[in-house]
């Protein structure tokens, strides 16, 4: 059930026939919401035998079981068939989307088919429109947003999703930009938009929802609000933001540098969260209904012409971007990182994958696997101007090399060699935590191969004595727990605020009637659905080949032994097989 | 002493909408952006500044009140007005009379949404953009 209703309201949009329908699905209530509902809808609609970018593949969006009406419950989930990993695609974005879908009256949206001409969609309560986007095709994310903003109504209560040239040209790690500063970043949702000729979506939340249990609800709301704003639990996310991690990660030797040839960056001080705050930070922002405000906006000055012609440019930054578009490429000033971030944003690429892909290309160039004939311009660590050009070439598919590069480091290294130093896990480029077995196993076994699946990197930092079984247990536990957080959909930064009790308290004041046992049952259902989809797409942990580089460059916990890493993955796989065979 | 809301710290606004959600929650018992008497918007997309629109608590002469044909608006001590919903006929005259744009119209209840300077929103603003100011009772 969803907030005060006993059904999940699913909006189906077919871009080919321009048909829409809304179904009230009671049967989906057992999946709670968010990732649960989205997984089920993906399972129902995916076509395993067809390519991920076939027009018949679905894009699923879902909001959660308590979206927007409690603090920091801000995310929308997207699920799809990932063109990057060729298996389960799952990605989250904040911004305003969840609130606008809630107030438009839709818990989930399923988009299939392909429009004949570039289109954008507007989604309101009782009104879905297909609009001409031909003139927008080819435009960067910024311009697209501006034009739509000026054309459409709903100022202040709408959300605008759009892709850039990267998505149009089907890059496997193209993202979808949400409200300028948030994204469905990883695993290539942008390419699915591109493959459907879908340039943008505007969601407008113009309805209200009557509160049924005002007293109880407000009491719990206040409690959670207090916990978020008056305790230390979330302070760091507002203060310096996640970039506070640059120095500590660097210090312990977990900060991937120059294509992970090193685990720390000698210029880390120059690109630390503190440095960004001193030199570039101009404001902080929040997703709607989040009083924390972790979005950090940095400003840099760009000279666009001779004769002292400058403009100021504002972009959002955080830890992952500083690692991927900073240390990983040997870029050592805050201004240069911001300039590269801006290009990546405008073209509509996932920032992490872009950095890691360019890291691979730089090393391949150095080693002579590729030459100027491929790269057009030389790629060298620290040379930000050339990286900016390379990002443009990738987005535009300027030549065969850049086209293949835009399919990810795995595909590029299949063709040009250098697989050993293409640092990806099951096809997804590495996040910025080289902490030890926890991170490596976590990324590999995580349902979407992200550091957010199970936070293996944080287990590495908290586990006092290395213990194989314990590590596997902890990763498994976290992976399953997060199915609950992701079905409400709580921002993972607030995971310490929302313990099980708080979750139950919140849900049970808005019409649910759940116990802790119920939550466990639901978590199992969701995790198993995801695992089933992976199986359906022929994903098998037994076939994973990890890049040698992660075993060559020491982690925070020393050198990682290759055999042991595979042994751990194998252990996890066995655990999953047994788990899948237990009854629901 | 009477109090009025002052939204003079908007340069600090992070756009969390907690103020709007708390206003509609307490005053109208709805989860809603529509039913909030304070409205947060951006000027020029999200890269622009956040602005707020809310009653500025006019004293002496209140345009909204003057425009009301059914005497549904009453002077509020300290500034602004109090809406008497029973008497309001939903004509929307006050909406256009207020040049601040502080009055919106709730199409669901067919009544205007007008700030009553209760201060709830200021308690839920995490960044001290909104505050209550003490003013002289003027009635
Ligand atoms: S609603 Fe507008 S006209 Fe009426 S008192 Fe407030 S600011 Fe003045
Ligand atoms: S002072 Fe009260 S009525 Fe006015 S905007 Fe704030 S919460 Fe709403
Ligand atoms: S509560 Fe404060 S920070 Fe949040 S939107 Fe309202 S004025 Fe801005």
From TrEMBL, chain B:
| Entry keywords, A to Z | 4Fe-4S, Iron, Iron-sulfur, Metal-binding
Membrane-spanning regions, if any?
Answer: none
Q: Name one Pfam family in it.
A: Fer4_4
Enumerate the spans annotated as 4Fe-4S ferredoxin-type domain.
3-31, 46-78, 79-108, 115-135
In its UniProt record, a GO molecular function of this protein is: 4 iron, 4 sulfur cluster binding
- Output the Gene3D superfamilies linked to this UniProt entry: 3.30.70.20
Where along the sequence do coiled-coil regions lie? none
Please, which domain of life does this record's source organism belong to? Bacteria
Q: Does the keyword Cell membrane apply?
A: no
Q: Which PANTHER family match?
A: IRON-SULFUR CLUSTER BINDING PROTEIN (PTHR42859:SF15), OXIDOREDUCTASE (PTHR42859)
Q: What protein name does the entry list?
A: [Fe-S]-binding protein
């Amino acid at each position: 059930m969803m907030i005060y209703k006993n059904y999940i309201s699913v909006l189906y949009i077919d871009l080919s026939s321009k048909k829409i329908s809304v179904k009230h699905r009671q049967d989906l209530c057992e999946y709670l919401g968010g990732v649960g509902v989205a997984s089920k809808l993906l399972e129902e609609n995916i076509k395993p035998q067809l390519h991920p970018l076939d027009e018949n593949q679905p894009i699923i969006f879902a909001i959660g079981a308590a979206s927007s009406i409690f603090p920091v419950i801000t995310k929308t989930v997207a699920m799809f068939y990932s063109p990057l990993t060729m298996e389960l695609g799952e990605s989250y974005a904040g911004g305003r989307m969840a609130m606008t879908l809630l107030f438009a009256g839709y818990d989930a949206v399923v988009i299939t088919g392909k429009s004949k001409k570039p289109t954008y969609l507007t989604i309101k309560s009782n009104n879905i429109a297909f609009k001409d986007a031909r003139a927008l095709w080819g435009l960067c994310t910024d311009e697209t947003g501006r034009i739509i903003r000026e054309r459409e109504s709903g100022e202040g209560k709408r959300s605008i999703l759009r892709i850039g040239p990267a998505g149009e040209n089907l890059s496997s790690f193209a993202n979808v930009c949400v409200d300028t500063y948030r994204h469905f970043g990883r695993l290539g949702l942008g390419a699915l938009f591109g493959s459907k000729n879908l340039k943008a979506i505007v969601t407008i939340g113009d309805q209200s929802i009557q509160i049924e249990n005002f007293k109880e609800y407000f009491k719990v709301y206040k409690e959670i609000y207090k916990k978020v704003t008056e305790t230390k639990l979330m302070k760091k996310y507002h203060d310096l933001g996640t970039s506070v991690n640059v120095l500590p990660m660097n210090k312990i030797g977990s900060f991937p540098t120059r294509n992970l040839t090193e685990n720390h960056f000698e210029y880390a001080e120059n690109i630390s969260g503190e440095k960004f705050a001193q030199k570039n930070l101009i404001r902080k922002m929040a997703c709607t209904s989040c009083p924390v405000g972790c979005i950090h906006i940095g400003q840099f000055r760009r000279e666009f012409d001779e004769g002292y012609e400058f403009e100021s440019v504002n972009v959002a930054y955080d830890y992952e971007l500083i690692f991927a578009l900073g240390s990983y490429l040997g870029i050592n000033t805050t201004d240069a990182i911001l300039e590269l971030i801006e290009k990546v944003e405008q073209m509509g690429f996932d920032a992490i994958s872009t950095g890691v892909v360019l890291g691979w290309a730089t090393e391949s160039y150095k080693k002579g696997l590729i030459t100027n004939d491929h790269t057009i311009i030389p790629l060298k660590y620290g040379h930000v101007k050339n990286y900016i050009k390379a990002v443009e070439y990738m987005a535009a598919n300027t030549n065969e090399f850049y086209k293949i590069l835009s399919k990810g480091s795995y595909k590029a290294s299949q063709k040009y060699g250098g697989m050993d130093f293409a640092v990806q896990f099951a096809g997804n480029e590495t996040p910025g935590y080289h902490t030890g077995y926890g991170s490596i196993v976590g990324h590999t076994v995580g349902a979407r191969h992200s550091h957010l699946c199970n936070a293996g990197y944080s287990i590495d930092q908290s586990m006092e004595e290395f213990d194989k079984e314990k590590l596997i247990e902890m990763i498994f536990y976290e992976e399953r727990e997060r199915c609950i957080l992701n079905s409400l959909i709580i921002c993972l930064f607030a995971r310490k605020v929302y313990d099980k009790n708080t979750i139950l308290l919140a849900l049970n004041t808005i019409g649910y009637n759940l116990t802790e046992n119920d939550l466990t049952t639901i978590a199992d259902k969701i995790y198993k659905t995801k695992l089933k989809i992976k199986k359906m797409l022929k994903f098998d942990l037994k076939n994973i080949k990890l890049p040698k580089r992660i075993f060559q460059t020491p982690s925070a916990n020393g050198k990682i032994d290759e055999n042991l890493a595979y042994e751990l993955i194998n252990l996890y796989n066995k655990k999953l097989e047994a788990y899948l065979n237990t009854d629901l | 002493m009477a109090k009025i809301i002052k939204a003079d710290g908007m340069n600090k606004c992070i756009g969390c909408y907690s103020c709007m959600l708390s206003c509609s929650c307490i005053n109208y018992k709805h989860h809603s952006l529509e039913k909030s008497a304070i409205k947060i918007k951006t000027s020029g997309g999200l890269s622009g500044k956040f602005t707020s629109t809310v009653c500025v608590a006019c004293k002496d002469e209140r345009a909204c009140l003057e425009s009301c044909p059914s005497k549904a608006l009453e002077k509020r001590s300290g500034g602004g007005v109090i809406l008497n919903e029973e008497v309001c006929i939903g004509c929307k005259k006050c909406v256009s009379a207020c040049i601040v744009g502080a009055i919106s119209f709730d199409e669901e209840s067919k009544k205007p949404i007008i700030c009553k300077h209760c201060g709830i929103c200021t308690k839920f603003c995490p960044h001290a953009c909104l505050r209550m100011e003490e003013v002289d009772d003027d009635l």
